Amino acid sequence: MPETDKTAKVVNKSGTLKMEDNVAATKVQRDISGRQMGRRNNRRDRGRNTDTAPKEFDTVTINIDRVSRTVKGGRRMRFKALVVMGNHKNKVGIGIAKGGDVTSAVQKATAKAKKSMIEFNMDGETICHEVETRKTGADVLMKPAAPGTGIIAGGVVRSIIGLTGIKNLISKSLGSTNKVNIAYAVIDGLKAQVPRKEWVGNEGKAEKAAKKTPTKKSAEKENK
Hints:
The chain is α+β, with helices and mostly antiparallel strands. Helix content is about 25%, strand content about 30%. The chain contains 6 helices and 10 strands. The strands form 3 sheets. Strands 3-4-5-6 form a 4-stranded antiparallel sheet, sandwiched between helices. It has a 4-stranded mixed sheet with strand order 7-8-10-9. A hairpin with a 2-residue loop joins strand 3 (about 60-70) and strand 4 (about 75-85). The longest helix has 14 residues, at about 100-115. About 20% of the residues are buried.
């Protein structure tokens, strides 16, 4: 008599035998013409195709508002999104867009933020100098801070500065609390940053200091 397979058989609820894993791995699916078909909805391969490379820019959704427009048939409801994008260095941009739903509004705002990216000057891990910018009713004051101070700001200013390379800053929002105007005021303040070497009175100091420093040859001649 032939030896019977003593391994346990897995039976489905319908009473049919379930295909074992080793058999399923070697089974090849073919279409009507006989060509080999690939496996669909393979859970093992879902995570392999994802891009694990680090992103150059990060985005933060600051605010989402529901806006309406009165038309002949009634009110038309839409969503407005305010998004900021930065590379945690010296590039940042903001975007505002409307859409029929939240997802489309955020996507449009992200695209606008990427197009409106600006590059500003920094002094180490803080801004170059104090600046106060005004955008319609919003007034934002930003001051450089010593190392270890951190970002002393709130709301919109903290969200924007957090996506830059600035680690020490003192800020105060004056006037209007409109988030859109505050965001534009912060961007204007960052664009207005002038490096220390270009300040009035410091333009020729760097060149003079370079000329005054004696070279090795001149120092040897003086010693002789």
